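Hi P.,

Sorry for the delay on this. The queue was packed all week, but I finally got your sequence through. Input first:
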Amino acid sequence: MIPDTGIRYIRHTGTPSIFKAGWVIRDPWTILKNAGVAVADGCITDILETVPGHRHVTDCGPGILMPPLVNAHLHLELSALADRLPLGKGFEPWVAGLLREREVIGIPGLARAAKEAVLALQDQGTGLVGEISTLGITRSLLSDHGISGVWFREYLGSAFPDPVLVNECPLSVSVAGHAPHTTSPDLLVFLKACTRKNRLPFSIHVAESTAEMSFVAGNNSQWYDFLVQRGIDPATWPVGNKTPVMYLNDLGVLGPDTLAVHLLQVTDRDLDMLADTQTRICLCPRSNQNLHGRIPDIPAMLKRNLTPALGTDSLASCDSLSLFDEMAFVRQHCPGVPPADIFAMATKNAAMALGAADQYGTLDPGKRSEFIYLEPGAPSRDQVLEKVTCYGIR
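Then the structure:
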């Protein structure tokens, strides 16, 4: 445990044991006082509302025992760019700086910083990740350090790859399209078909930037020229009079196994379409605020019974990969959103978005015996989730 965080990550794989705490968050809507989690052979076997005297009981303390947090969208391989890029000066200067600085740092430097970020994840309470990799340098880092989740290899342009997808626990390998304005429609359809065949989630950035919105609407000749200069011919792309969400729906890319990330600039019709297609969604509010000066309309999404997940994006666009910080930011900027909904975004919803709800997201029998202990506790049941979702404000 990193000093002063008050976060302890617990993973038990041995003989039957019980972990007791002042509060146990079974799921966003079930909070138990002086309860325990029974575990054996790497799985949760029971949630105990009354903990019996037993020599195999570990009393964690008066604090909060809860599911590990799930970071559904991050770019660990950009960790070396922390504090090296301009924030608040527009998206295009940030992208230009990213490409320049990434080249300057080089693969060895990027890998070193990514390793440091991986080692810090569990100390921040994160147990499951959806990692987006353009350069391919983080898969071994996650597997070598026992981090679970989905490693997405991201593709831009129009060249068809020959991806090898792996659907297994603890770390699956899938693919992602970068965005509607950077990845050709044929490639997006191909990548989605690969994930569908292997029963894996597909991830894509959607409706994030003004450049993306205007290009898909058919009004950005400058971006068209940029693609041509990069060897990508968008002449046959079916853009025009559409939003990015509508564009992806026309391609058949939306659906329950697609994770649409950001959704910063969406219409009511877009949200209805996402709900109708049961598309999974992931939001990165701190990154959006830093790069675009605005955050997604979370209340509108919840109103449509969408189940947003949370991600942190990268250290190139925000100051930490902590989901506690992300939850606290949402709590500050969306005071009308109940703490239970915010907590669900960082646990249950995010686990569903990554196709791992059978293993993570709640403390239920049959799930992995991994949890975090947060200290100190809370004075009442009503204050437990308030404590957790505001923990990043310190």
